[in-house]
Model the fold of this input.
Amino acid sequence: MTITIVGLGAGDVHDLTRRAWKALETSPKVYLRTRQHPCVPDLPNSAAYVSFDAIYERFVKFEEVYQAIVDQILTDAQHTDLVYAVPGDPFVGEATTRRIMEGAQSLGISVEIVHGISFIEPMLRYAGIDAIDHLQILDAITVGMMHHPPINPDAPALIAQVYNRQIASELKLTLMNQYPDEFPLKLIHRAGTGAVNVESLKLHEIDHSEQIGHLTSLYLPALGGMSSFEQFQEVIAHLRAPEGCPWDRAQTHESLRPFLIEEVYEVLEAIDSGDMAALAEEFGDLLLQIVLHTQIAIEHGEFYMTDILSHISRKMIRRHPHVWGTTEVNGNAAQVLANWEAIKRAEKQEQGQPRESILDGAPKGLPAMMLAYRYQAKAAKVGFDWDHIEDVFAKVQEELEEVRAAQTPEQRFEEIGDLLFALINWIRFLQVDDPESALREANLKFYRRFRHIEQRVSEQGKDWKAYTLTELDHFWNEAKALGL
Done:
């Protein structure tokens, strides 16, 4: 027994291949996945045509529709040869083809494929592009169910099956996570037929089109501007290549270490300033460090960027069972954190990396204030903590007296460390969760107010030594009154 799967082409019956016409003409019975195809009325009338359109009404999910069609085809094919005709090409956007081939193989049934023109070829004409020029082809239903488009923005994309305004709306929201609302694109309706219509729209307008139907696809031009992660990796790989930059080629993981730390602090400075343009630039500089380290690792056979992305993606999914699993948290952020820590501990055990200390897990390279806070919080979880905030404050006072009583530089150095540690403990009891940021804000505030003092001194054209501390303090109070 043989199943012949015939591609009906993009729409115009004149584009049907001679082989496809012969298969349809010589078969006493032809199964149509759907009659909703422009060439169906003009097909050879010698065959009895049976469509599966009714199945679409019986099921809600497409997966169920396709499986029902496949089951019927395989059942009937066990008794007779049959022809199954699908829109376009059997291997372009046709979910039933591979399922039929897999099922037929297990049943010992032969499958022949008669190719047809897919939606892609006529779309290329109206999009004005060459398919070999990095073209990406996607399904609107799949993309619309996502939260970020799986598209390289430096290359164009064709998105098929935008068959109703609901799908267009869902697709639009996903694309807006990468493309501007005003990004120009094309909705191409009925490509491959005599009734083709091309709409040039903005991204935010696509679900307003009244032309959307079964034969609607979307052409998304390249965003360009070196906007893709892949393009950035190419830039860095080029810098490290033999014909690249001598400085970049000389770098190692160790030599780049101070730059990585510096870039993190520049990101924090941009966040504190509230300057979003600066923040975008500083994130780029930080990403440069990550990609440069990765390129060095690739050259030494240590790991690839794909390893990094796979690892962190799997970790995020694994540690969010309330999003990708069945765990219930009922909007409780504390429960989310508790689950995270429990999963993290289990991972370390499975990897043969059990923690030797409760304090392990806080990177020792953190700024000292942050590390002290983390150590204290971890110790508190197992009961090693003060009972009352008054006791903590008493400890601060005790450490202050010990600083005052210190006789040598070495003693003062040690006692100052103890005083700062006690202060951070007090801060934790006051429920200030990020003392590092609190101090950074204080630093910024001092900078702003001192700049005001400098400006006032400059305006009056006098030397700093001509001012008393009281006069300078007056300028400081001016800055406070101005909200600086």
